[in-house]
Design goal:
388 residues; seven-stranded mixed beta sheet; 2 domains; 13 helices
Length: 388
């Protein structure tokens, strides 16, 4: 029996990240894992903070009746209260437990928000380069993604965003710190974006922030709740606590948003009818005690610097990213897919920028062992020399 045509079409254009990850498995089996340098997948390689293990063991040891049962679809009240208290300081807006829904990661959060706000053929604007799954998430709920360019340094192009707005625009979706570029949008640009959306009316600003705590050189990530009334923050604990497999995140609605109560009620319903039902019970009880915790960011900064310095010495033009754990260098040739294939021939795995709607670049995920970075540098150099 045939599968759904839209799923078949999606499979044909599915994520470059997974394709390269699968290619890596093949090459490792052929050449030995120690000889293949895999920068394809943003899978955190740092251990969770030490306190995570302590809290996890304590929660398991003191589990009581009902601790593994259903709870409200929006999550435990005490977890939402802890997250709201933390976000109030972070975002410069006073939130409480009733402003949040605990979700199955940031992906789950984005899906329940889009399910709630989108009618068929509604549009979601997102700056590029961007996380490729955004288009799939919008289409899940009858909408479509509208991609707009950023400036050459990957900062927001507000004119491009305004020109993309139509009567069908329901949201602008931003990701800062950005995957794949590592760019962090500054306060001035976000305030201007907030004013633009207020002026146009009826458009949500959604911020996808799983890398918020992973920033370097004293860079600050502005909170969007202070710059746009109709705004929603989604995030997860996958990156800052190094627990991506635990699938825990949240969506937080600005207390001043229009139709605030309806929006949250819709998200609660969407959490159920999309099959998430509720966020994982065990992890909710754990992260309620870990709002201030994060992995050791200095380790990622050292990896960033090691890789940037090594690539610069090899001849690449590199701008150090402000956050996340990705580099997005320019390809030495316009065909980024061809250049990534050249890297692959050197047993170095990266992802073409085209997979992130950023052609002419390639993404390197440096959440890897230092030895992987050091030992890959000769391969990066050899690949570059083929074209320059």
């Amino acid at each position: 029996m045939p599968i759904a045509t839209h799923i078949e079409a999606t499979m044909e254009k599915s994520s470059w990240i997974r394709k390269m990850f699968e290619e890596g498995a093949r090459l490792k089996a052929q050449h030995g894992a120690q000889n293949v340098f895999d920068f394809s997948l943003g899978n955190p390689n740092l251990p969770p903070p030490a306190r995570f293990e302590q809290v996890l063991q304590d929660v398991v040891a003191h589990a009581g009746p009902g601790d593994h049962g259903y709870m409200p679809n929006i999550g435990y009240p005490f977890t939402r209260a802890a997250v709201a208290q933390y976000l109030s300081r972070q975002q410069g807006a006073q939130l409480n437990a009733d402003d949040l829904v605990m979700t199955c990661g940031a992906a789950g959060a984005l899906n329940i928000v889009l399910k709630t706000i989108l009618n068929p053929e509604d549009e979601v604007i997102t700056p590029t380069p961007c996380f490729v799954e955004y288009g799939f998430y919008a289409s899940n709920h009858g909408g479509k993604i509208v991609m707009v360019n950023t400036h050459d340094d990957f900062t927001l192009d507000l004119d491009a965003i305004e020109q993309a707005i139509t009567p069908r625009t329901r949201a602008v979706l931003i990701n800062s710190p950005n995957n794949p570029t590592g760019q962090v949008y500054n306060r001035e640009s976000l305030d201007a974006l907030g004013r633009l959306l207020e002026r146009r009316g009826g458009i949500y600003l959604i911020a996808d922030e799983p890398y918020r705590k992973i920033v370097y050189d004293n860079v600050l990530v502005p909170g969007i709740l202070a710059c746009c009334r109709n705004s929603v923050v989604v995030s997860s604990y996958s990156k800052d606590l190094s627990i991506p497999g635990e699938r825990l995140g949240y969506a937080a609605v600005n207390p001043q948003a229009d139709d605030h109560s309806k929006l949250l009620a819709g998200m609660a319903l969407a959490n159920r009818i999309l099959g998430f039902v509720n966020a994982p019970a065990l992890m909710q009880r754990v992260v309620a005690q870990l709002q201030e915790e994060t992995v050791d960011i200095t380790v990622y900064q050292r990896k960033r610097d090691l890789l940037c310095d090594g690539l610069a010495d090899a001849g690449y033009a590199i701008a150090k990213p402000a956050g996340a754990f990705y580099l997005f260098p320019k390809s030495p040739i316009a065909d980024d897919v061809r250049f990534v294939q050249a890297l692959q021939e050197e047993l170095v795995l990266a992802v073409p920028g085209s997979g992130f709607m950023g052609p002419g670049h390639f993404r390197i995920a440096y959440c890897v062992d230092d030895d992987t970075i050091v030992n890959a540098l000769p391969g990066f150099q050899r690949a570059l020399r083929r074209f320059v």
